[in-house]
Structures are given as structure tokens and as C-alpha cells.
Write a structure and sequence with these properties.
By secondary structure, the protein is of the alpha/beta class. The chain contains 17 helices and 12 strands.
Amino acid sequence: MNQTASSDELEISFWRRALRRHRLLVLTVVVLFVAVTVAAVLLRPASHSATTEVFVSGADVAPEVQFVRSRFVSEAAAAELGSRPEVDVGSGDSTWILTVTASAATPEEAARVATTYATTYVRLREQATTDARRAGEADLEQSIARARAELDALPPNAPPQAGARLENEITAFQDALTSTTSATIQAGPRPVVLDTTVADGQASGTVWLYAAAAAAIGSVAGAGLAGAVGGLDPHVPGPAYATRALRVPLFGTVAPSGTRGGWRSSRARRRARVRTAPGEVIAMIRALVLPADRDKLSGSVLVCGAGRGDGAEAGRIATELATGFARAGASTALVRADFTAPESDLGAPGLSAVVAGRVALSDALTVTDDAPGLSVIAAGAAPDSTVDLLSGREFGRIVEELERTVDVVVVHCAPLGDDPGAALVSRTADATLLVVSDRTRRDELSRVEQTLHATGGRVEGIAYVGEPGA
């Protein structure tokens, strides 16, 4: 259950970070989708529709709709119009109304197509009715002629009943023929073309509907693209990823220092000032690194970065941490053991000179004005081997002497992913704080884990440098 919750938290953290870091990309995709869709809708040829209603009496509309849709009517209308029309045939609100709707570039053309199609249907329906009536009349006339021929062919000695029967048939056929030719046929459909109405095919509401749909699709596409870009980013995607990879807790999230350039860093610093004061974060980290559950605050703390880009931030946090211990009333010594940092190039005697025996420890310690009780020993000139210096007995003796002299010793080493010396120091330190930032690469974090496993080093917690809530 905990593993599932942790995975869900990591997934949520990834998407939150990806959407925040690539929000301009998402916005660009949404704007692009909306712009292309609106342009396509506005630039397409104007479309107008016209609907002609046909009143059909004496018949069910449904079969008439099928008749209008038939190839027979379509080909006849195409012959009238000069091209095969695209129409939609349906039944109207009334039981006896069918509609013929056509679309065209102009209202006049749409009305012409709809009206022509409807009148073609009416003409063909009347023609079909006339043809049916004429076929019936022809059948009756043939029946009369046949009966008369039979009557004339009777022999003189034929029974009178036979002649009477044929005369009755002739009379019946003549009455039916007279009724058919003289009376208006009442049965069957009698379609009449009614009015034609024209409507614009494009409205502003339709454009906004297309724009809203494009914005929704663009948001999904932009979020997916942001996730893909975030997945390809080689850097650590937030503190949740780092804590899960190293299986250690997060002690705090610190805003980037002012030395980091870029608009993103300035935004992160402004967000951090709004959410949490930097001093409160350092105080929380200080309380977690060396809990105040003993009579006197004391111990040694190692602070180091995870990757090559974390050295400066680790040095800053080590300084703020040491200053915080001193201001809390504990005498503190800050040992600079990062020989890749800029201050290691200074000419003042430092740690390397003390380890070599050229300078006494008391002469290398410098009291600062930042806080009472805080002294600093610079790194000095870089040694031939940092690992040999940090794993040697002399360095251990120096730390032990400082622990007897002051309450808290804070050691700042080079990034652990590049220099295994920090891992060796972590074995003897009371607590180790690993600094991870949004500049830390995933492969550097993997090397940290491998180095700790190989050397037996340990990390008590992580301080993440980046946007809060990343």
C-alpha cells in the first residue's frame, strides 16, 4: 500500500512539475490548435442551405421519402441541374410534409437546387400516377375488346346464357372505364411544392464551438507533449524522485541562490519568499540533521552535493547551516573540504596545509562576523588526491580535535557523484545532508547510490534546491 501510494505521489509530482516547467509549451500548443481551427473555419468557402417543403396528401410520407431518395429522381434532377446534387431528404414536423435540403456557395444556388429537386419529384410522381391510370384504362379497353370478340364469335345455336354473360361483362368494363376517365383520381399521393427557406451555413456560435473544442484537444496534446519532454529531461524531476531513488527522507526545499541565472530561478526565488522564508527552511533542516534531544547540541554534519552542478548550492547551505547552529548557541566550525569550489583558490592557508602539517589548526581557523561562535577553515590548495586526504588519519584527527573544541562541526565536501571522498567522510559523521537540485542529472544520482553502496557511506536526508512543491 505504501509502495503504491509512493508511486502515485511520484507520478503526480512528475506531471505537476512537467506542466509547470513547460507551461509555455502547453499554452503554445493550445493557441496553435485554436488558431488553426478558427482559421480553417473562417477561411473555408461560405456555405448556405435552402430547404423546400413538399405537401403530400393521401399517402404516407415515409415511402415518399424513399421515392425522393431513389436513383430515378436523383438522375432526373441531375439532368435538370446539369450536375448531380447533394441533398438531404427527410420528413417535416407535419405528417404530410417532406423536406428537401440543399447546400451551395450562394443562397440563390442553394434555393435553385432544392426547388428543382422538389419540382422534379412532383413531376415524376404525377407522371407515375398518370402512367398508372393509363395502364389501368388500357387494361379495361383490352378486356372490353376481348369480351366483344367472344360475343361476336358465338354460334347461332349458342345458349342464351353465354351471350348474356358476355354482355354483362362488357357493360361492367365500360362502366369502370367511364369512371376512370371522367373522374379525378382521389387515391394516391398528390404532392405540392410549398415555400423554400434559405439559411446561412456559418454562424459565429459555430466558430466559438470549434474554438472551444480545439482548445480542449490542444490542452490534452500540450500536456502529453510536456510529459514527453519532461520524460526526456536528463535532470532529476523533483525531490520526490530523489527521495525515492535514495530511499531517504526530504529534510526541506530551499530556494535557489541569487547566483543562479535565468528567469526560472528568479521566479523560484519569488515563489519561495511568498511560501516559506529561507531561514525557516534552514532551521527545519538543522533540527532534522541534529535533533535537540540531548542536553547539549553537538555532533558532526557532512554537507555535499549530488552532482557537479550542486557544489555551489551545497556550499551555501553548509554556510547557512553552520551559521544557524552558531546563532542557536552552539559553537560551530565550518570545514571547507570542497577543493573544486572557488574559495579553494585563495592564497590563505587552509585544510590541505593543515593536513600536510605546514599550518597549525588554530592558525587556519578564521572567526567570522556572521554569527558569534562560528569559525571557518578554508579548503586551500587542491591536493593530489582528495580521497587520500579525506580518508587519511590526519583528516580524522583534525575533525576529532574540532569536535573537542566546538559543539558542532559542519564539513562541506565536493559533490558525491564526482568524488567518493565525501562518502568516506559520511561513515564517521553523525549526519550527512545531500544537496540535490533541478540541475542534478539522473545518472549523477545513480552514481551517488552506487558510491554509497560501495563505500558503506550513508545519507540521512536530502535538501532540495528548486521550486517549492516541485
